[in-house]
Amino acid sequence: MSIFVADVSKMYGIQKALDRVNLSVAKGEVVALLGPNGAGKSTMMKIITCYLPQNEGEVKVCGYNVMTESLKVRQMVGYLPENNPLYPDMYVREYLEFVAGIHKLGSKAKTRVKEMIHQTGLEPEHHKKIGALSKGYRQRVGIAQALIHDPEVLILDEPTSGLDPNQLVEIRNLIRKVGEQKTVLLSTHIMQEVEAVCDRVVIINKGKIVADAPTHELQLLNMANRIIRMEFDKTYKWENLKDIAGVAEVQAEGEKIVRIFVSSEEDVRGRIFRFCAQNNWIILGMGYEDQSVEQVFRKLTFES
Ligand code: ADP
Ligand code: MG
After folding, report:
1. pTM value > 0.85
2. Is 192 a residue whose pLDDT tops 80?
3. Cα 63 to averaged position of ligand 1 atoms, centre (Å)
4. Which residues have CB atoms below 5 A from the ion given as ligand 2?
5. Domains present along the chain, CATH in parentheses
6. Is the beta carbon of 205 within 6 A of some atom in ligand 1?
7. What dihedral do alpha carbons 44, 49, 50, 53 form, nearest 10°?
């Protein structure tokens, strides 16, 4: 396991920021920690990277304990903190060499900095001061410094927040490329980011994990509560549809459209069709409503 988090709780004074969190990330996985502001994402990441101690539970990175083997953990982990703190007066190359020095890369430092500048696409800007870079290029510097000691695990705290749409796409591409070789845990509150970059999503809300699933399965989490959308030629007595086995709720949407909430996992469309035919209701259209990951997320975080 690259990241292993067992029953971790964290208090800030009397406030519980993390409440018995469990999380395992296997080597090579790219996982999103998704949740609204204040959910506990940054706190979780600070604990994994040894910047904050947990109050309860155990955290290991590549088998090393964050409390008792923090030097080892720091070697295994690269970290891009939230808001990417950088030194605006330093030149890109100078800064990366400085970080390489912190990691005691010695004679390897110069080559490694060069490799990082290449890998993160910083070549056109590497001679500039960090303060003169666009936000997108600053994020590249942040990712380059996180990767400089070639860690196995990369922790990225909201790596795309504040970027414009073009920069966003570029940084996501970079993360995807890096993710081919590293274990990545990134935090975000943006749904599209998860779908674009991550294999798996862990949803956190108010310090608790509320879902953990492969990205493509997230929609299926909601299977027991699917919605069928039907269009008719006019209004009928929609509430009668509730007599059909498996139909939980019926909701009219305007004069001709009705949304049917299904409570069973079987396909009830056949039964609905027959019911309508027997009553001479003229169906113009019928299909499952696409539940976006976004809707599932809302459900899991705000309604639970
Ligand atoms: P996220 O990164 O998901 O937005 P955080 O981990 O930053 O969430 O915060 C989780 C909760 O802990 C929030 O309610 C936040 O206000 C609180 N918190 C975070 N850092 C501190 C701190 N240093 N002192 C007190 N409360 C904090
Ligand atoms: Mg945060």
Report:
1. no
2. no
3. 27
4. 41-42, 82
5. 3-220 (3.40.50.300), 227-288 (3.30.70)
6. no
7. 10
